[in-house]
Amino acid sequence: YEPGTFGENMVISDLDNRDVAVGDRFLTGDLVLEVTSCRMPCATFAARMADPKFIKRYTAAARPGIYCRVIRGGVVEPGMLVDHRPFAGERVMMPELMETFGRRLSEVDRARYLASPIHYKLRAMVESIR
């Protein structure tokens, strides 16, 4: 696929999103990003790919994109090194988050999710599903 096909704003070479968890941070130059959620495929995305089976294949691959909040802004240029710092708490990995998205969680998993710095919309969804 061409760069930008998946709506990415930043690509980090050699990063496997399956090794990323909510709360992980990425530092480069002055920029600090904190992972808040995974990218879930939607009908609009499938239409753009012109493939009605794309969502199922994307989900089965369990390699979601990641959404981050900006903790500290900065300028990023191609070729800059990026430092990946894992979340210090109990980690909710991107494939797990993708697999459980919108589903009822055990109380243990629900507590894990809510103890991590998840996106406010995802937090509201987790709080509402019992």
Automatic annotation (TrEMBL):
Matches recorded under Gene3D superfamilies: PK beta-barrel domain-like (2.40.33.20)
Superkingdom: Bacteria
Pfam family, one: MOSC
GO molecular function, one term: pyridoxal phosphate binding
MOSC domain ranges (all copies): 1-85
PANTHER family associated with the record: PROTEIN YIIM
The protein, known as: MOSC domain-containing protein
Organism of this sequence: Rhizobium leguminosarum
